């Protein structure tokens, strides 16, 4: 994987299509509880990461990454109430007090770290669709489908312990 095969314009009127395993944006592009970074993903790329995407239809979907308590989190930009984009201005996902993600349409609120809906009209127990990402060397990457999800920490430790870490996904 190369970190240079996709570029992200610093201006946010451009939403890059990010393929699995590729860079989403530089780490410093998203600051804690501030503006998020919008990008696009293909269902074929993320179908292995999330369970609620119909991968029979290969379409391009909006997504975003934000930072909360120092950690980057990425979600499909799709409310759990109605499949509408969340941000009230492009890239603006947080409430005024910066504690939750809010949907601009009907004010559903979500925990930034899990995507769990905590108020509003979304169905009980609903969540935003979270994407698997990895942050390393000052950049944020969309993980490869069907890899990180199915390799548990325990399995990683066993593989490393037995010198089989070459079998681990190379993000
Ligand atoms: S579409 Fe998000 S709360 Fe209704």
Topology record:
Layout: E1 23-26, E2 37-42, H1 43-46, E3 60-68, E4 71-76, E5 101-102, E6 109-110, E7 117-119, E8 130-131, E9 133-136, E10 139-142, H2 153-161
Antiparallel strand pairs: 1-10, 2-3, 3-4, 4-8, 5-6, 6-7, 9-10
Q: What are the defining features of this structure?
A:
single chain, 171 residues, mainly beta, Rieske Iron-sulfur Protein, 4-stranded antiparallel β-sheet, 3-stranded antiparallel β-sheet, 8% helix, binds FE2/S2 (inorganic) cluster
Task: Report on this structure.
With 171 residues, this protein is mainly beta. Helix content is 8%, strand content 25%. The protein is built from two helices and ten strands; from the N terminus they run ββαββββββββα. It has helices at residues 43-46, 153-161, and strands spanning 23-26, 37-42, 60-68, 71-76, 101-102, 109-110, 117-119, 130-131, 133-136, 139-142. It binds FE2/S2 (inorganic) cluster.
The low-pLDDT segments are 1-10, 147-152
Q: How many distinct domains?
A: 1
Tell me the overall shape: globular
CATH architecture: 3-layer Sandwich
Largest sheet entry: 4 strands, antiparallel
Q: What would you give as the CATH superfamily?
A: Rieske [2Fe-2S] iron-sulphur domain
Q: Which class of secondary structure composition applies to the elements? A: mainly beta
Per DSSP, what share of the residues sits in E-state strands of 2 or more residues? 15-25%
Strands, count: 10
SSE string, helices as H and strands as E: EEHEEEEEEEEH
CA radius of gyration: 16 Å
Quick check: average pLDDT? Answer: 83
Listed once per kind, the bound small molecules are: FE2/S2 (inorganic) cluster
Quaternary assembly: single chain
Strands in their spatial order, largest beta sheet: 2-3-4-8
